[in-house]
Amino acid sequence: MEISSPTSGGRTEPLLVSQDDAVQPPGNTSWRLDVKEFRLPQQNGTSGNDHDSGRSRFAFQKKYKVEEYYKKQERLLEGFSEMETMTEEGWLPGSLTEDQMKQLAKSERMAVHASNVANLVLFAAKVYASIMSRSLAVIASTLDSLLDLLSGFILWFTANAMKNPNQFRYPIGKKRMQPVIALYTINTWAKTVLENVHALIGRTAPPDFLAKLTYLIWNHHEEIKHIDTVRAYTFGSHYFVEVDIVLPEDMLLNKAHNIGETLQEKLEQLPEVERAFVHIDFEFTHRPEHKNSV
Predict the structure, then answer these.
(1) The whole model's pTM is what?
(2) Fewer CB atoms inside 10 Å of the end CB: C or N, the chain?
(3) For residues 276 and 189, which has the higher predicted lDDT (pLDDT)?
(4) Looking at the domain assignment, is residue 23 inside a domain?
(5) What pLDDT does 192 receive?
(6) Can the keyword Transport be found in this entry's annotation (predicted)?
């Protein structure tokens, strides 16, 4: 059972090898991939004793790598099942409703306000204690509380700025104001630098996520003849997704537009995706239309 990256060209085989090569039963959905066709083979345990420490260590390392490989395959199959549910039901399992999202936003605002009030009271108390005791330890603790208060102020300012979008100055909203709660953290905590650096440079999504996207795109519509490109890269805390699909050359414009638009909406329902771009073409032999910037 192998995993391969999405490739250009004709309609490719599934990313996981099917358990058999039987033809799918006839029906309206016979053109779609079926997650039930994929399964992992049972792993056989090792037996016997090996007194050679070197060989035993090699066997243990090999067994560990095999176990990690199958765990990765299981996670990939779980992702395929999620994409299957979205295709059948039109929604992602575990996603929040609009009312739940509003309630979550309200709870977050209350938590920010409560944190700010608590930090302000604590800071005032420590300032008084520093003046009275003149202890360096208390003064250091007061400065630490000041930093906490500053962090809370940044969260409050960002949340209020994001609630008041300006479609003329910010056509796609102010969600990217959050990397500003990141610049402050980068200068304060080195650990956060290591966690966010990849998200700031446009790093590609992991192969498992690209495989999930490919599965979802292939099962989107029967008229999709080829998947030319599937690209996802970080842009802040979420991914930008670029997809090139091939439709029949003689397809009417309105039908091709509807296929592309519904696919874009479906991709943007994924919680990891901020925006999706779907490009429609009638052939796949052309060169890439965008060059990589140096």
Answers:
(1) 0.53
(2) C
(3) 276
(4) no
(5) 61
(6) yes
pLDDT in tens, 235-258: 877 899 999 999 999 999 999 999
Domain boundary among 167, 183, 199: 199
Residues 152 and 169 in one domain: yes
State whether 105 and 152 are in the same domain.
yes
Number of domains in the chain: 2
Per-residue model confidence as pLDDT tens digits over 116-173: 788 788 888 888 888 888 888 888 888 778 877 777 777 777 767 766 766 677 676 6
Q: Are residues 278 and 133 part of one domain?
A: no
The parent domain of residue 68 ranges over 59-88+201-283
Shared-domain flag, residues 166 and 114: yes
User: Which CATH number goes with the domain that contains 236?
Assistant: 3.30.70.1350
